Amino acid sequence: MSRTVQRVPSQEDPVIESARLVIRPLGLDDAPRLQAVFEATPDHFAVVAGQEGATPESAAHELREAASRPGREVALISLADGTDAGALGWWAAHPEPDVALLGMILVVPAHRGTGVAREALAALEGRLAARGIRRLRTAFQRRRLAIHPVVKALGFGEMSIREHTKLGLAGASISLWEKAIENSNYLPQTETQR
């Protein structure tokens, strides 16, 4: 008999907060909220995956995958008033101990152009830097050209073909992007610094 195990957050507070956002890692029971965000962002699925939108099982599948892999998290990005504004997914210490893979960052249309993605990413980088992560990578199919300006605007630079080869991805049809996480730029403020 197969049993699904609920993901247990680490000992530190799993919630990441910024000036106006709350980024809360999700468990398996949170699939309906994540699914609502997915359904509000069909263009994300069109650009990233070439699909018309999320399938009815997209959120549940994403959360099951995260729960089965140590270091992998999926979180809701919410405004301080509780409004869900997007989602964020990452895999800490993957593929290397000081690297995290950003698998998803999406913002619902009503909150695009307001800096939500940039602020959420900066808050995540602070959390990752505190855990010793120094680089953040993302990847997508090379032919998905519409993503290039977005990842550039978020501070990523495309990795060279030589880097692809060193990672065993020579000739792959994916585009790898990376940015350094500057520890001093993203560490959360302490109460005495506020």
Description:
This protein is of the alpha+beta class and 194 residues long. It has one domain: 3-Layer(aba) Sandwich (Aminopeptidase), CATH 3.40.630.30. It has 7 helices and 8 strands. The chain has an 8-stranded mixed beta sheet with strand order 1-2-3-4-5-6-8-7, with helices on both faces. α1 packs across α3 (58-67). Mean pLDDT is 84; it is low at 1-11 and 184-194.
Taking all Cα atoms into account, the compactness measure Rg is 17 Å
Element pattern in H and E: EEHHHEEEHEHEHEH
Helix-and-strand structural type: alpha+beta
Largest sheet: 8 strands, mixed
Specify the CATH class. Answer: Alpha Beta
Question: How is the largest sheet built, in terms of strand order?
Answer: 1-2-3-4-5-6-8-7
Going by CATH, the architecture would be: 3-Layer(aba) Sandwich
- Structurally, the number of domains stands at 1
Distance between the termini: 52 Å
